Amino acid sequence: MAEAQNIPVGSTTAGQIAVAAESTVATRMSAPASFDVADFPVPHGREEEWRFTPLERLRGLHDGTAVATGDGVKVDVEAPEGVVVETVGRDDARIGRAGTPVDRVAAQAYSAFEKAGVITVPKETVLTEPIRIAVHGEGGTAYAHQVVELGAFAEAVVVIDHTGDAVLAANVDYVLGDGAKLTVVSVQDWDDKAVHVGQHNALVGRDATFKSFVVTFGGDLVRLHPRVAYAGPGGEAELFGLYFTDAGQHQEHRLLVDHNVPHCKSNAVYKGALQGDDAHAVWIGDVLIEAAAEGTDTYEMNRNLVLTDGARVDSVPNLEIETGEIVGAGHASATGRFDDEQLFYLMARGIPELDARRLVVHGFFAELVQQIGVADIEERLLAKIAQELEASVA
């Protein structure tokens, strides 16, 4: 019998620029789930799931006062031949299959959208080009729902690109048939005033593989909730994330992997960099291994690099295990400044300090970016990181 590996790594640096905590009990496991917004009380900020979020910056998404406008977001889809792209009504049976809203904003989004987008990749279809979903904010408020469904043994890459200015609450469902392989890249490159709250639900079929990349740069407030559950044994999920939090921004990523069936795997790696006064990043990683999920193998890690004074990180990895018959389970969290030894090594070889700092941060992120597998997206993200670094050393 394998034992769970709990790795406590809490840190508080001078000036309270960073805080990390860990727990062996995932506090969000008991969160209610409902499609009805009335089942969720209006949050006040004292609730566990809302205590890190500045509610006053949600523009009314949490209390029902945010009303959809005609100039919310524009969505364009580019799909290879063979992919079915539809716009459907609320009564379509495919909506909501992957998961149920677990907070008031997600329920509000589900209750308020008028039409949903559904993208279907037929069984045994292997795409050689990505499906691209462009979500562009046009200055208003919007509620949205998107479904991506892969048939058995289908393979696809989906890129969801968020740009412009909007107040958006949106749910995204990923449904993977048996043996399917799906890679999703969700880029949040919003303008400075945008607000984006979303729940991403993935239902992973037997022997299917789900790989997610969540990349967050822009926006005034971004709060995303990726969730994974399994529909059969042998499923694998990899959740990767990259965020660069600037002065005044609030970026929050709250993960849940529910190992609800036997012999599945999951791995979560999120990395962030912060700079500027009141830059605030939050990472909550929850993994639940249910009693029936024997043979589970899981690990989650969050690393943060604080580039300037005045920034703050809250990093909370959680692990709840209901069976001892597992392959392995562990978590880790680390937050700190530049590694002085790395800087010294580079500077001792004639590299100026500012260039050395850029190289350290570039290397910190490059390993994740290079796993995306979409060349133009990788190039764009590395260029965006370089642009952010120019600001940090200016």
List descriptors.
SUF system FeS cluster assembly SufBD core domain-containing protein; 394 residues; Fe-S_cluster_assembly_SufBD; disordered N terminus; SUF_FeS_clus_asmbl_SufBD_core; mainly beta
What does this structure look like?
By secondary structure, this protein is mostly beta strands. The chain folds into 2 domains: 5-339, no CATH class; 340-394, no CATH class. It is 13% helix and 43% strand. The chain has 4 helices and 18 strands. It has helices at residues 104-112, 340-347, 353-369, 375-393; strands at 5-6, 19-20, 73-78, 84-88, 116-121, 131-150, 155-176, 181-188, 195-204, 209-216, 221-230, 236-245, 250-259, 265-274, 280-289, 297-306, 312-321, 328-336. It has an 18-stranded mixed sheet that branches. Mean pLDDT is 89; it is low at 1-18 and 20-30. InterPro entries: Fe-S_cluster_assembly_SufBD (IPR055346), SUF_FeS_clus_asmbl_SufBD_core (IPR000825), SUF_FeS_clus_asmbl_SufBD_sf (IPR037284), SUF_FeS_clus_asmbl_SufD (IPR011542). This is SUF system FeS cluster assembly SufBD core domain-containing protein. Pfam families: SUFBD_core.
